[in-house]
Amino acid sequence: MATTSESAPPRAGMSRRRRRQLVLGAEYGVFVLVVVLVVALADWGSLHRNFFNWSVAKGLFPDILQYGLRNTIVFTITGFALGMVLGLVIALMRLSSVLPYRWFAIGYIEVFRGLPALLIFIFVSVGVPLAFPGRNVPGGVYGQTALALGLVYAAYIAETVRAGIEAIPRGQVEAARSLGMSQGRAMRTIVVPQAFRVVVPPLTNTLVSLLKDSSLALFVGVMLTQRELTKFGRDLASQQGNTTPIVVAGVCYLLITIPLGYLARRLEARQKRGRR
Asked: What protein family is recorded (predicted)?
């Protein structure tokens, strides 16, 4: 019986590269179709009148900068400063060999990361005066907002700082101890400074989140001159029956958050280059 040694014919079908090209083309096509539908169906006149009304936007200046933006920056800086100090203490307690310190730090982190920030603001504005009759948080609204933001974000900062401290090789501490340094001095002069260089990028992202949560200051009863951007925009939008003030407030937030986000990415890229 004769046998054939002919090779089998090639399998029919598209190559993997061709399939990827078709899928990518379909994705671009869907995107273009959605954009065309949005542009064609949207009522641009109504959007312009209600969201991008230039005459309304001009009337917001300079008050939105003098009060809204300024107060937002003040709330953010004071809240972040308090959160940084408290977060560093909590992080060191979390790494302590003393069990009660570790238990307290773990409990604090879990509670304040688990509760909505809104509840902390309500507690600070209502619970603190009830718990300590006749006493008020120093600084009024500014102090209450800084305290609420600091309590919340200290939990996140503590975990970030703890991770940075644990990233430092233990050999550096052992070398410092062999030179006669105490544990506390080694942490202050060697470990913590290096840890902060490691955690600067994530701390920048935390600062952006804190900036946005500063809008919760309205729950501590701000006055007209103490309004931050969100409260300022919402009040003006209600008064004028137009949402342009909210859009302008959003743009003011972006003027701060976009540079901070860019800074965080640059710092992360620099750290990656330093590890190579």
From this structure: Belongs to the binding-protein-dependent transport system permease family. HisMQ subfamily.
Q: CB-hemisphere CA count at 13 Å for 103?
A: 3
Rg (CA), the chain: 28
Report which residue type is found at 78: T
Say which amino acid occupies 20.
R
The DSSP string of 137-176 is: -TTHHHHHHHHHHHHHHHHHHHHHHHHHHHHS-HHHHHHH
- How far is it, in rounded angstroms, from Cα 27 to Cα 222? 48
- The mean per-residue pLDDT over the stretch 111-115 comes to 92
Place of tokens 């090639």: 10
Domains of the chain: 58-275 (1.10.3720.10)
- At 266, which amino acid appears? R
Helix/strand/coil for 61: coil
The single-letter DSSP state of residue 98 is: -
Across 35-39, 50-54, 74-78, the highest mean pLDDT is recorded for 74-78
Q: How confident is the model at residue 274 (pLDDT cuts 50, 70, 90)?
A: low
Question: pTM score, two decimals?
Answer: 0.80
User: What is the SS3 assignment for 188?
Assistant: helix
